[in-house]
């Protein structure tokens, strides 16, 4: 079938970012769910779509693209969405790229690492939580949150300026995973809490669809039932 196809699992932070962007911008697409917990990404069939066996993946009329960062930037251009998502102004666009480059080795790594240790590994392997590794990623996440607040949100309403961009979408999805699994991302970080509320308002009702009512909602219910989401 022609048109945009999206291969995803909403337990994945990058997948949620792509899904949110598409829904908020009313972009039509066909959903192709890939169940990571049951290894559907490791099948030979899916390997023909993405040899790296990762999600998200888009297939836009035969053009296959992986990596959420690249996907979101491609979508902003292909669908000519509002320019604030990935600004045309060179310096403003560079701020988005700056955050994305920083996040790969900092926020994304520490947030996903905490989630893996707290939720994914124990469930997949039926083993206790590795507390030493959990403390390691918790400390790294704390460092990332401090930089997020003191640098990117120091004098900005959003991560790259005065309006929401794809950087905000990616970042909020990264933070919801450790938050769901019991890490209080707001403790001692009032600017982050204010920013998250702003981003949620801009993304709802779709934010709730992929976080509260999506599979991550089960994680919230188990690890952080009193969370403000």
Automatic annotation (TrEMBL):
Its EC number is 2.5.1.18. It is found in: Cytoplasm. GO terms for biological process: glutathione metabolic process. Residues 89-216 form the GST C-terminal domain. GO terms for cellular component: cytoplasm. It is an enzyme of class 2 (transferase). Gene3D superfamilies: 1.20.1050.10, Glutaredoxin (3.40.30.10). InterPro entries: Glutathione-S-Trfase_C-like (IPR010987), Glutathione-S-Trfase_C_sf (IPR036282), Glutathione_S-Trfase (IPR040079), Glutathione_S-Trfase_N (IPR004045), GST_C (IPR004046), GST_C_Theta (IPR040077), GST_N_Theta (IPR040075), GST_Theta (IPR051369). Its main location: cytoplasm. Belongs to the GST superfamily. Theta family. Homodimer. This is glutathione transferase. It comes from Paralvinella palmiformis. The lineage of its organism: Eukaryota, Metazoa, Spiralia, Lophotrochozoa, Annelida.
């Amino acid at each position: 079938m022609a048109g945009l196809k999206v291969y995803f699992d909403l337990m994945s932070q990058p997948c949620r970012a792509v899904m949110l962007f598409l829904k908020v911008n009313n972009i039509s697409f066909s959903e192709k769910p890939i169940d990571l917990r049951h290894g559907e990404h490791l099948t030979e069939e899916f390997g023909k779509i993405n040899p790296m066996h990762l999600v998200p993946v888009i297939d836009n009329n035969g053009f296959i693209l992986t990596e959420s960062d690249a996907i979101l930037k491609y979508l902003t251009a292909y669908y000519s969405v509002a320019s604030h998502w990935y600004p045309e102004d060179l310096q403003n666009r560079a701020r988005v790229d700056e955050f994305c480059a920083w996040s790969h080795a900092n926020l994304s790594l520490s947030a996903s690492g905490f989630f893996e240790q707290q939720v994914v590994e124990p469930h997949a392997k039926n083993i206790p939580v590795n507390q030493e590794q959990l403390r390691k990623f918790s400390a790294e996440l704390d460092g990332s949150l401090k930089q997020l607040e003191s640098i990117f949100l120091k004098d900005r309403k959003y991560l790259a300026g005065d309006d929401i961009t794809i950087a905000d979408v990616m970042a909020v999805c990264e933070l919801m995973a450790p938050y769901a699994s019991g890490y209080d991302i707001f403790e001692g970080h009032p600017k982050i809490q204010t920013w998250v509320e702003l981003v949620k308002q801009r993304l709802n009702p779709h934010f709730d669809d992929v976080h509260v009512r999506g599979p991550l909602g089960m994680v919230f219910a188990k690890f952080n039932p009193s969370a403000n989401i």
